[in-house]
Design brief:
alpha+beta; 8 strands; 3-stranded antiparallel β-sheet; 197 residues
Length: 197
């Protein structure tokens, strides 16, 4: 699957694959001398990627792994389900349930839904970047309202659940400081980027 935007790339991985049993991933860099289309064709043939749900279901019933991939520019993530596959070198793959995927300035990480015993994943700003963002935000929390609001908006252009949670936590921290200083509070709806997905 070739994607045109970072949002689509992250959405495909998080919602279409990792949340649907494709727990194993492997990241590859596409060499400059080849095209996305060539890589797509090669991976489709090599991993026997099928777009038919019945074919995938039959493979699953036989204990065979299903594979797929997502490409954005020169980055490709190959994903796989559990099961046997003659062309799959498991030692190259990481398990999203144990190791978050940090890619293109974002982190795809697992969330376990205890009520349904099903893995869900979310997209966050990576922890190291989020800490820097919060540190800067603390320094400007009492500045002009528009400046603070725009800074929170620019955390990310996307509204994935994890990013929304980080944005909300940041807003709560800012409003506590602003309330203590007697300044006008910033509303939640004012922090959503106008270009958001």
């Amino acid at each position: 699957m070739i994607t045109k935007t970072v949002f689509d790339f992250l959405r495909r991985l998080s919602r279409d694959y990792f949340s649907n049993g494709y727990y194993y991933y492997f990241v590859v860099k596409i060499p400059p001398h080849t095209t996305q289309e060539k890589v797509s064709e090669k991976l489709t043939n090599f991993y026997k990627v099928s777009s038919h749900s019945q074919t995938r279901q039959r493979r699953k019933e036989k204990g065979l792994a299903n594979c797929n991939f997502v490409i954005f520019k020169d980055v490709c993530v190959i994903v796989a389900t559990k099961g046997e596959h003659k062309n799959l070198r498991r030692r190259d793959f990481k398990d999203i349930r144990k190791k978050s995927l940090v890619i293109l300035g974002h982190e795809i990480k697992p969330l376990f839904d205890e009520s349904r015993k099903k893995l869900k994943v979310t997209v966050n700003i990576p922890e190291y970047r989020y800490k820097l963002f919060r540190k800067r935000l603390e320094k400007i929390a009492l500045h002009n309202q528009d400046k603070v609001m725009n800074y929170i908006k620019n955390l990310s252009p996307y509204t994935f659940q994890g990013i929304q949670k980080q944005r909300f936590e940041s807003l709560v921290m800012v409003n506590k400081k602003r309330k203590k200083a007697g300044l006008k509070l910033i509303k939640w709806e004012e922090t959503k980027p106008f270009w958001a997905d």
